[in-house]
Amino acid sequence: MIFVSVLLVLPNTRFWSFDAVSAADEQAIIVNIRLTSADKSNAEERKRIAALEEQLAAAIKDSGTGDFDGDEFGNGFCTMYLYGPSADRLFTVVQPVLKKFHALTGSYLIKRYGKPGAKQERVAIGDAGQQK
Which of 1, 11, 67, 122 is most enclosed, with most CB atoms within 10 A? Predict the structure, then answer.
C-alpha cells in the first residue's frame, strides 16, 4: 500500500515519461570547446564556459529533450556531456546556444546515436565552422 501511495505522489517524475530510454539506448551530444591554452583555461575563459553550461542546461531542461551531465577539462578542451533519447533533438536545442557562444576554431561536437561505440557524427562549432 505504501508503494502505491508513493507512485500517486510522483506522477510527474521521469519514471512516467514515455520518452525515457534505457541507459544503453540513450543518445548523446558531446561538446568539445577548444581552450586558448593546451594546458588549462584561464579564469575568464572558465567564466564564459560556466555561463555557456548554464544556458545549455536551461535550454535542454526547458525543451524536455534530455539532461546536461557535466564537463571535464583537459588536453586543450572543455568537454561537456548531454544525454537524451534523441541526439538530433538535443542538437536542435543546443545549436543556437553554441552559435551565440562563438567557440574557438577547432571546437566541435559529436552526435552519438546510442551507447559508446554507436554511430557518430562530428559537427564543427568553432567560429570558422558554424553551421547554417
Answer: 67
Range of the domain at 81: 21-129
Overall number of domains in the chain: 1
Q: Which of 14-18, 40-44, 105-109 has the lowest mean pLDDT?
A: 14-18
Dist. CA 122–CA 70, nearest whole Å: 20
In a domain? residue 108? yes
78 within some domain: yes
User: Considering the domain boundaries, does residue 55 fall inside one?
Assistant: yes
Return the CATH number at 54: 3.30.70.1230
- Strands 67-74 and 27-34, by their bridges, are unpaired
Q: What is the arithmetic mean of pLDDT over 99-128?
A: 93
Q: Which residues contact 6 (CB under 8 A, 6 or more apart)?
A: none
Name the packing angle between helices 87-101 and 43-63 (round to 10°).
140
Burial 17-39 (b: 16+ CB within 10 A, else e): eeeeeeeeebbbbbbbbbbeeee
As given in the structure block, the three cell numbers for residue 54 are 548554464
CA distance 70 to 80: 6
